[in-house]
Design brief:
The chain has 193 residues and is an alpha/beta fold. It has five helices and ten strands. The longest helix is centred in the middle third of the chain and has 10 residues. This is Dihydrofolate reductase family protein.
């Protein structure tokens, strides 16, 4: 069965973006970025892959699911299909105009359950916090890029956890891998216990 992997950059205090969704505090250089480009090219937007001279092989992920606010910055920059190398799904309760190669779902839980039953590689949950909260009980693996700073406020990794019909209570994960980089970033990987 395919896994839903929440692969996300996060601060020490658990934020994936600033209060207005701003991600500019997260550096885009350093030895951790080199490792990300080499080991996780499927997570890199298609236009960035081209600029960096890399090509995703879809071995880790062949599908991405993201919330509307995660998709919007690309759209604002004139990039209608940011992950053209993957099957792209945008979770939005509202009907919105999308390019033909991007699917919309108003029910991300049902969509993820259907995806998990299909053949393929992993399903990349790119965010944001509200979508992750809605999918908290479907997340099989966490791949966290923990950055050594605090934001103090912003979009929580599971912003609104316990909403969207998810049952309250702890969700246990066990650590399976941890790597530290000279940049201070730690890649921490967990699987559902």
């Amino acid at each position: 069965m395919r896994e839903l992997v929440y692969h996300v950059a996060v601060t020490l205090d658990g934020f994936i973006a600033g209060p207005d969704g701003d991600t500019s505090a997260f550096p885009v250089d350093g030895d951790d970025v080199t490792a990300l480009l080499r080991e996780y090219p499927d997570t890199i937007p298609t236009h960035v892959q081209r600029a960096a001279g890399i090509e995703a092989d879809r071995s880790r992920y062949d599908t991405i699911i993201m919330g509307w606010r995660t998709y919007t910055p690309a759209l604002t920059a004139g990039i209608a299909s940011p992950y053209a190398h993957l099957r792209q799904i945008v979770a939005s309760r509202q009907e919105r105009p999308l390019p033909p190669d991007i699917e919309r779902t108003a029910d991300p839980v049902a969509t993820v359950r259907t995806l998990k039953a299909e053949q393929g590689s992993g399903i990349y949950l790119a965010g944001g916090g509200e979508l992750a909260a809605a999918l908290v009980d479907e997340v099989d693996r966490l791949l966290l890029k923990v950055h050594p700073f605090l934001l103090g406020a912003g979009v929580g990794m599971f912003g609104g956890a316990g909403t969207e019909g998810a049952a309250p209570g702890p969700r246990r994960f066990r650590p399976v891998r941890r790597r530290e980089f000279d940049s201070g970033v730690v890649f921490a990987e967990y699987v559902r216990a």
